[in-house]
Structure formats: C-alpha cells, structure tokens
Amino acid sequence: IDVFLARSLLEKLYLFQYPIRPASMTYDDVTHLSAKIKPKQQKVELEMAIDTLNPNYCRSKGEQIALNVDGTSTDETSTYSSKLMDKQTFCSTQAASNVSRYAAAVYKKGELHLTPLHGILQLRPSFTYLDKADAKHREREAANEGGDSSQDEAEDDVKQITVRFSRPETEQARQRRVQSYEFLQKRQAEEHWVHLHYYGLKDSRSEHERQYLFSQGHGLAENTELIKSPSEYLMMLMPPSIEEENDKPVAPSNVLSMAQLRTLPLADQIKILMKNVKVMPFANLMSLLGSGTDSTAVLRCIQQVAMLVQGNWVVKSDVLYPKETSSPHSGVPAEVLCRGRDFVMWKFTQDRWVVRKEVAAVTKLCPEDVKDFLEHMSVARINKGWEFMLPYDEDFVKKHPDIVQRQHMLWMGIQAKLEKVYNLLKEHLTPKKQETQSAHPLLVSGEQRVNMAKTKVKQNYAQLEKEFQKQKAEMKSNDTSAMMDVSNIRIKEEPVSDEEPMDTSAYKVMNNGIVNGLHEEEDSTDSLNGHLPGGCIDRVAQELKAFVSSTFKKQFVLTLSELKRLFNLHLASLPPGHTLFSGISDKMLQDMVLDTGCKQILVPFPPQTAASPDELKVYALWEAGDTYDQHRQVLLEIFSKNYRVRRNVIQNQLSQECGEDLNKQEVDRVLK
C-alpha cells in the first residue's frame, strides 16, 4: 500500500473524543447548537441539544434543574429559556501533551493518506449550571437574612478601617505570583472565545474540507523523502558527522554552487533553483539538473514549490515569503504579501499584460512591494504595462495535459479565495483586450474557429475543384458510380449553444482561454481532438453516472453551480488520463442527473435575485429508498410553489399529506 503525507491541514486538524452518549442524546448534525474555541489554550466548548421527547428523559428532573438555575425569571440571561433542561455543554481537555506521533488516515483506491494531528481533545460534560444554581441559592439566603435587620441599625454600625501601603514587589515575588495557579487561571480567562460555525457531515463545505485529507499530489507521492536511491537512503540512516560538515567551506548566501547543489536531494535542488530564478521553463530546469534525472520525479517535486503560469513554472509565494517574516519595505506580514503576489500570478494566467496601478488598487500594498512582485515574473514596457517575461510554453502544455489540468484546478481554488479577500469585480476577472495580439490568441471562440476553417477552404478551393473533377471523371467510367456535387462539400460547423461548457478543460486558463470540452448539442459527442469511440462514451457515461448517484445520495438537493463545483473537486482527485478528462458539458451533466432518478425543482425565486443562472437551477433526488421519501417529495412540492415557507406551514402540510403527526426532530431531519 502506498503511503502519502498530506500537509494541507497541518497544524489545523484536531481529534475530538466525545463521551459515551446518554440514551436521550445523539451526536448528529441537529444536536450541535453552538461551538467556540480558545486557540492558544486549545480549549473547546460545544453546546448540544438533548432530546426531551425521548422516553429515557426525566421531564420532572429537567424542570427542577431549570428552576434551580434560572429561578422564575424568563429574561434573555436565562440558561434554559424553555423552562426545561434541553441542552448540555461539553468542555475539552487535552488528552495528550505530545501528539506528534498521531495522525489521521484515509484509505482510498490502494493509497493511504496520513495527516498529522495538531491536538487530541476529550470532551466532558460541564456542570457550571450547578454553580449558577448554588449562587442563586446563596443570594436568596442572603436576602432573607438581610431583611431581619433594619436600615437604622445598618447606619449606626460604624467599623474601623485600617489603611496599608504595599511595598514594591521584588523580582522573586513577581516570579512566584506569575507561576501561581490563580495568575494562570486569570490569564486563561482573559483569552477571548472565538465562535465557530458547525457544518454537518453531508454539508458541501465538509465535503470540500475532507478533500484536504488527501495529499496535494493527487496520486503522486508528495513527500520526496520516501523516494530515495539506496545510497541516499543509507545517508539518511547514517548521516555524516558534524566534524565533516564543518570542514566544508561555507559559500556566501547569494552564491549558488552547482557542484554543491547536485549533492542535495532532488526536491532541495529544485526549491533552491526556483527560489533564485523565480520563473523558468521546464526544459531549462531539466538542463540545470543534469543528465539522467527522471522527468517524472522532477514534475512531482516542482509542483510542491511552483505554480504553472502560461506553460512556465513560477515559484510559489510561500516559498519566497515564509511564515513569521515580513516585508523589508513596509513591514507587512508574509501572509498579506503571499496574497498580493498570488493575485499578480493569477492575473498573468488570464493575460500577458498587467497594470501596476490596478494591482496596487486591489491589494492595497505599498508601491515597492508591488514592484517586487512584478519584477519577479515580468518586464516593464513603456506606455503598455508589465509583460510576462517568458513566451507561452506550448510544448509543455501539449506533452503534459494532466499536469495542466491539475494546475488549472489549483488556480480555480486560488481565484475563489482571492474573490472573497479582495471582493473582485467582473472587470478584474475578465482579461482586457490588447491592441496588439500576441503569437497565441487570448481567446478563440467556436465561431472564430469555424470562420478560420471556411477561409482556409476558400484558399484551397482551386485544389479542391481539381480533385473533384478528377473524381468525377473516374466515376463516369463506372456505370454504378454516383454523381457528386461541389455543394456537398461542407465544413462541419461547431454548434452554438446558450450554455457555456463546464470549466473542466485542461487548457482553459493555461492555454490562454482556449476551451476544450464536449459540444452542447444533444447528439454531439465531438471534442476538439476528434471523435470519441463508442466504448469510451459508454465508460464516460458510467463514470459520470456513478459520480452523480453517489453525490445525490449524500446531498439530496443541489444547485447546478454546486454540482459543478463538486464535479471539479472530483476531477482533481482522479489519476492522470482518466476517462472523465475527455470533457463533460453542462448539458451532459444535467441529462445524467435526470437519468439517475432526480428531478428539477422549479423554485420561484424572486426576479430581483442576484444569483447566477446555474444557482437558480435546483435538482433533487426524488426517491432515495428510505422512510423519508414521501416527506421529501411533499417538501419539494411546497418549495416548487414558493421559495420561502414558514416552518409551521411545512409541518402542517407534512402531517396532512403523510397522515401522521411528526415531532420537531423528525421535521428537522427532513429539512436538513
């Protein structure tokens, strides 16, 4: 079994150990009411609902506890607003101080992906409500005792006050005070709670986060330390002594010796080269690494330290700006610098030209930092802007479509993050038209390709006419020959559809926007590279049907936009050369959804909604084969008449249609 080390959730992944649940509580999506965390202390508090309708729940005891805690008051400060103990709080404690040898493992298709744990937290019930009840009891007793003495007696009671002046605190006294239990408790209480939002197991965000449990290489080993030659592995087991290392002459930090470089592991060689050069074609990188270097291993390593921009490799921002560093010009932390530089790299994936003022306006960084970003990967042109320093590497794009596809998926994720951080407008997302076109067009539509083909045929019309006359003469000599007309020679025009193909092409961004997907026409299965064989079509349909079926069994209801996002994530997890990489159109995906037993729900959204057309197309699994099929169908019929419905209307409609009274939890489960 191949073992991979996933680093995406490094220092972020926690293991929660829940206590053995009582019979009146279930740890599912409905019961999690709220959650908050103190990150420095690694302390978590969860508030979970108790099923008060469960036969194992003692209602009289729950009412008594609520009365002891809150009294007869019903204000907003009450712990139990329903006059019943209907929830319980769980607090965490660290199960182990050192969790470096623990990891979470995911097994998939013969591969074991490991993610190191950052903490193991045991959740235990919190009984702070009992302290609150005791405080209420003491207040009542004090009030009763204070009522016996009159106000006059309190005024006549004069007490002597002794005033003392504290001496200056010595260093030893201060250290004892800092190490005391009371001081530590005070410091811990000063840290503010950070409120969290809980996402259920079947939520799309949970599905997205679970993808990070797999290594970024998607089928390729991410940890290059596991791929070593016998001599390198022996060197790791028995490293050279410290004396031998000190004997080596130390070169200046700005000098890179190729002789010393080739003694390092392959991953370190590539990282040092990319950090110094910043932008490099793959062919140049192979020439620097020396003859005999495996190109597959180089591709595996380069993806860890660089991103693909216009067919060339550009070093990642976090390699140039590690954590806990800052800008030498403005003092801005590394995280902000990485976001700004990622924005510049992303702009160069859309266009060969970038305007410095536009970058500064979006990133809000100082001009010196922006200039550094641009100088890393582009050249200034007078009165034009900054042009990407290297030409488009078409050879690499043609030879490695799987790498291009994987990098395209990564850029889509980076674009989504940049849109949220910088609130990018449409003018930032669409490439600007240039007066002078480069050698490789930024966008070639289907209609333009048809016009180009027509022009080419007209140029070769004379040759076609000669061939036709020759063929016509040969056919006349044969009695069974059939006449052929020049008008029958037609150019196959690409069908034009209102819907654009899905962003599953390997060349959409990396090849400056050229789309390579299947056509949208109902009977068309052509791709830009030719026709798909019949057997291949069947395999693509089977794979697509399996994905759609498994997705809707988990989600039940999805918009077309969300389904396309999940499909892109699914493509990113597939190995190179998979049949689904042949190109899937929106229409193929929608037809497959309807073929798998789903229905489109025509939700009457308001006309002034800002949602996109794909977000307005809602599909739902009509029959899942469980006990809630009828309830779901009634609920979907309700939403097909109105996009916003009150809960009591839903509950009454479900009771009428299904002929049974549903409790609150059953309605919650159907709605969930």
* Percentage of β-strand residues: 5-15%
Instruction: Walk across the major sheet and give the strand order.
Output: 2-8-5-4-3-9
Q: Kindly state the percentage of residues in helix.
A: 40-55%
- State the secondary-structure class: alpha+beta
Protein name: RPC5 polymerase
InterPro entries: RNA_pol_III_Rpc5, RPC5_C
Keywords: Coiled coil
GO cellular component, one term: RNA polymerase III complex
Tag the structure with descriptive keywords.
13% strand, 672 residues, 6-stranded mixed sheet, alpha+beta, 20 strands, 3-stranded mixed sheet
In short:
The chain is of the alpha+beta class and 672 residues long. It has a six-stranded mixed beta sheet with strand order 2-8-5-4-3-9, with no helix packed on it. A three-stranded mixed beta sheet has the order 1-7-6, with no helix packed on it.
Question: What does the model show?
Answer:
The structure is a single chain. The protein has 28 helices and 20 strands. With 672 residues, it is an alpha+beta fold. Among the domains are: 121 residues; 165 residues, no CATH class; 137 residues, no CATH class. The strands form 6 sheets. The chain has a 6-stranded mixed sheet with strand order 2-8-5-4-3-9, with no helix packed on it. A 3-stranded mixed sheet has the order 1-7-6, with no helix packed on it. Strands 10-12-11 form a 3-stranded antiparallel sheet. Helix 10 crosses helix 12, helix 22 packs across helix 24 and helix 26 packs across helix 27. It starts with a strand and ends with a helix.
